[in-house]
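Could someone model zinc ion with this protein?
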Amino acid sequence: MSKPRIAPSLLAADFSRIGDEVQRVVNAGADLLHFDIMDGEFVPNFGISPLMIAAVRDKTDLPFDVHIMVKHPLKYIDPLVEAGADMITFHIESYDEPYAVISAIKAHNIKAGIAFSPNTPTDTVIPYLSDIDLVLPMSVEPGLGGQKFIQNTLVKIETLSEAKHYLRHKRKYQLDISVDGGVTIETAPAAVRLGVTILVAGTAIFKSQQPETVIENLRNA
Ligand code: DX5
Ligand code: ZN
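Reply:
Sure, complex below.
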């Protein structure tokens, strides 16, 4: 089993010193950086803006993994690519046609992902797996950091891993399975055992005085 990559979620960073916060997790060994975009409609909250992503783009060469919790993903693609996104993950529950969003993302030669919320069945994303690079079962209700990991997500991860196994003969087929929400050193091991390849963690990493230890422990979970 290969080790998962670790994506600190900037939503838990101290926004008054965002450049330093990016540097802190880069130095601590992050593999990619996760940014949460929200529109105040798909979820009640607002998140990070493309402007903030652009502002920290030159701090690191690590891939920027952008998770968009918005009703209309299509209108976010161009501004996010411009800001420096290397992968964009939209929600299957959003209002735009999924293949249209996937094509719009891939037209920029970056990776496309689909996220789905805790109450959404795994079946809704299975038809798209062969056309995307990443699938993200949310392990908390989207919109807020610091929530508790929903255990039922593990069943979804297992189903996605099985589906990935069946698709493995497709030429060049690669699929990352990510998980986002309540990821800690306690909740990560089961997720990794069942096939998660990217662990997103906000609170666990940014609220720690030793983010390098947390990242190392998550990687070896
Ligand atoms: C929640 C966001 C997450 C969030 C995770 O909607 O998508 O990325 O920052 O935060 P923690 O790790 O604190 O649950
Ligand atoms: Zn996220």
